[in-house]
Amino acid sequence: MAVRIPSWAAQEEAPFWEGIARAELRVQGCTRCGRLRFPPRPFCPQCNWPDAVWRPMSGRASLWSFVIAHPPLMPPFAEIAPYNVIVAALDEDPRIRMVGNLLAAPGGAINEVKPDQIRIGARLMVVFSAGPGELTLPRWMYE
Q1: How far apart are the C-alpha atoms of 5 and 8, rounded to whole Å?
Q2: CA distance linking residue 74 with residue 79, whole number of Å
């Protein structure tokens, strides 16, 4: 199966997108000190070591922050606004934070969870759903 890597993604991000295509959330881990890092980068921010391996994560996180997007937005997004954009802090290392959307159900729309239902600190689990242009994205649901 050919993995769809976004045209804007750097080639060093390919293992992340390969994992997403297999419904697996991955982040880089330093081979020297073990520190996790995301987004991918060429050197460890802890020990400056260049080598890393891609490690699967549990897909569990807590809701660290969120915003509700309202128009004016680009036309395709204005049609579905308002919608949430969240920041999830991974259980394996809360310094690793991923931006996504909070869904009510796997494959649900990004505008189904009402703003008054979103709670900082809530427990999350990753789900993988179709994004723009047939791209699969990691998104989040309440545990």
Answers
A1: 8
A2: 9
**pTM, entire model:** 0.90
Residues 124, 63 contacting (CB under 8 angstroms): yes
What pLDDT, in 10s, does the model give residues 70-107?
988 888 888 889 999 999 999 999 999 999 999 999 99
Residues 70 and 128 in one domain: yes
Residues 34 and 79 in one domain: no
Q: How many helices (H) and strands (E) would you count in the chain? A: 2, 8
- Residues 114 and 52 placed together within one structural domain of the fold: no
Residue ranges of E strands in 70-135: 83-90, 97-100, 123-130
Question: What are the strands of the beta sheet with 97-100, ordered from one edge?
Answer: 97-100, 83-90, 60-69, 123-130, 136-142
Distances (CA, A) of 66 to 20, 27, 43, 86: 22, 22, 29, 4
Residue 2 belongs to a domain? no
CA distance 119 to 133: 30
Over the Cα atoms of the chain, what is R_g?
16
